[in-house]
Amino acid sequence: MQKSDLEILLAVVDHGSFSAAARVLGYTPSAVGKRVHLLEQRLRVPLLIRSTRRMSLTEAGQRYVEEARDILARMTALEEDIAEDESQLRGVIRMTCSAALGRLRVVPLVNDFMSQHPELEIELLISDKLVDLVGEGFDIAIRSGNLTDSSLISRKITAYRRVLCASPKYIEVYGVPLDPTELGHHRCLRLNLERQVSDWGLTKGDNSHARLGTGMMCNSLEAIHSACVAGLGIAWLPEFLVDRDLNEGGLVPVLSEYSDPSAGGGVFILRPETSFLPHRVRLLVEHLAAGLRMN
Q1: Which residues pair with 221 in a beta bridge?
Q2: Partner of 61 for a Cys bridge, out of 57, 111, 129, 130, CB 3.0 to 4.6 A?
Q3: What are the HTH lysR-type domain coordinates in residue numbering (predicted)?
Q4: Burial track 90-115 (b if 16+ CB lie within 10 A, e otherwise)
Q5: Secondary structure letter of residue 153 according to DSSP
Q6: Are strands 217-218 and 188-191 parallel, antiparallel or unpaired?
Q7: In contact, 133 and 271? CB cutoff 8 Å
Q8: How many C-beta atoms surround the C-beta of residue 18 within 10 A?
Q9: Residues 6 or more apart whose Cβ sits within 8 Å of residue 55
């Protein structure tokens, strides 16, 4: 396919020389050089400083390349979008979500979406680590909890409740705390950081200085859930992760009369702030939003 002058210039900048760009594009070095020269003539300004070792951009070239990259990306996305409007969805969507939410809620929805659009490719990263969407080239992320300030565009899909719970095995050995202040004498399974009882959504009782007891700290909700089911402590877990355990008796609520029903979190779909969102990504976002609200 014939490359535009802009695409050829970007290849030279990215690969450092006419010859390197030519190898990638399948052109001869002289053809690449001629196309860049014609572009400079048309703009009436030099874009590249040529040396025997490497090409570098002039000030005008730097400005042109920065703007041109965005224009080219938007044009490519627009062409893909128009093509998708007329036919089966194609292309790649890169997305990420946390492990527990991904396994229980997101993966089934993604599977359903792919079955409807068999020519679509989805790259899904399931990780409890916060991913740099812009730096690592992801289209969307699905995250749960309470979001901190972010430069990403966020859309809250649904809210969920958190439940303070323990297994019957734990209660048999350690008993049930009768007041939030008693949690300091219990094994507490905590997410990441040491917390006070007020951080666990407990609103009643004299808990201003009370802290949670020692136990396990982990960055994985699924690991904390597993430890809780195994009888290793009390945990404050999202309802979507423990609803089956609560229904089947594998876990039981603790300190329910002190729990604030509004102290939970939300499920959010996040994406980089871009001027153009491909049609395939828009459709996946709506599919996920509808499915997550129903569960």
Answers
A1: none
A2: 57
A3: 1-58
A4: ebebbbbbbbbbbebbbeebbeebbe
A5: E
A6: parallel
A7: yes
A8: 24
A9: 12, 13, 16, 17, 18, 48, 49
- Per-residue confidence (pLDDT) for residue 83, from 0 to 100: 63
> For residue range 182-210, what is the model confidence (pLDDT) as tens digits?
888 999 998 876 566 667 878 665 555 56
- Give the chain's domains with CATH numbers: 5-86 (1.10.10.10), 93-159+267-294 (3.40.190.10), 160-265 (3.40.190.10)
Which tokens is 41 given? 């003539």
Give the count of alpha carbons within 13 A of 173, CB side only. Answer: 11
Please spell the DSSP secondary structure of 170-232, one letter per residue: HHHHH---SSGGGGGGS-EEEESS--BGGGGTB-SSS-SS-BPPS--EES-HHHHHHHHHTTS
Angle at 96 between CA 92 and CA 98, to 5 degrees: 160
CA dist., res. 258 & res. 114, Å (int): 43
Is the per-residue pLDDT at 176 higher than 90? yes
Strand positions, DSSP E, the chain: 48-49, 56-57, 91-97, 120-126, 140-145, 153-166, 188-191, 217-218, 234-238, 252-253, 264-271
The Cα-based distances of 154 to 29, 66, 276 in angstroms read 45, 26, 15
For the ranges 29-38, 131-140, 149-158, 283-292, which has the lowest average pLDDT?
A: 149-158
